[in-house]
Amino acid sequence: MAGQGVDRRPRGADAPGGGRWDEVAVRLGRIARALRDQDNAQDTLDAVVRAAVRAIPGARHAGIMMVVDEGAVRTVARTSDLVDLVERVQCDVGQGPGLDSLHRHLTVTAPDLRAETRWPAFATRAGGLGVLGALSFQLFVSAEDLGALTLYSPEPGAFDQESVHVGQLFATHAAVALAAARREEQLTEAMRTRDLIGQAKGILMERHKLSANQAFAVLVRSSQYGNTKLHDVADHLVRTGHLPTEAHRAP
């Protein structure tokens, strides 16, 4: 079966510690610093796919698939329109290297899709799009996030053991950068939400002569009554001067 079994151990002159691997480590270190310098999570995702094509031997195109709302899989970053087409095929037929890596937490190699038996429907349609090689890495996994980085090549045999070794190191750096970007965005959003709720409480306190706790209770009651997020209730009040429901009578 093509691509089964990945030997993760560099050997001989190719082993880490040799001169060429020292150069690889330095290059990946530079890439990691550049990824951490991005402004937000989407910029980081876009930078990851661009850097992957430059850093990983054999890669011509790259994409990141993620599990999003309600378990749907979506391509969130890509280096070309071809990636969108190929990853849409994976989702359409329910098979492919990216999905295997995504759901089974594997490094998945497919050096020649013409000889591939694991995903026959995907292999046939990907070949029709001009993709003959693929290599996928689990990118990051947490309670909320699940993703995979997949590299594509129009040439069979483009991905070898060096591609796997470099790609695994690259994916580790990328995962760290993405996690940091996500945490920063979450912190920024949390601070913004806190400030917004504070403004909404201030409006209610002034208008109805309420205490801070009473004003917060009004926001919570409006949120529950309208099945609306507390943040959205506060945002509506700050923007319009009115609560989105009539469940805002002062205690």
TrEMBL record:
Region annotated Disordered, chain positions: 1-20
Pfam families the record matches: ANTAR (PF03861), GAF_2 (PF13185)
Protein's UniProt keywords contain Transferase: yes
UniProt feature, compositional bias: Basic and acidic residues: 1-12
Residues spanning the signal sequence: none
Coiled-coil stretches: none
Location of the ANTAR domain: 177-238
Gene3D superfamilies on file: 3.30.450.40, Winged helix-like DNA-binding domain superfamily/Winged helix DNA-binding domain
Record keywords, A-Z: Kinase, Transcription, Transcription regulation, Transferase
The protein's name in its UniProt record: ANTAR domain-containing protein
Organism: Saccharothrix yanglingensis
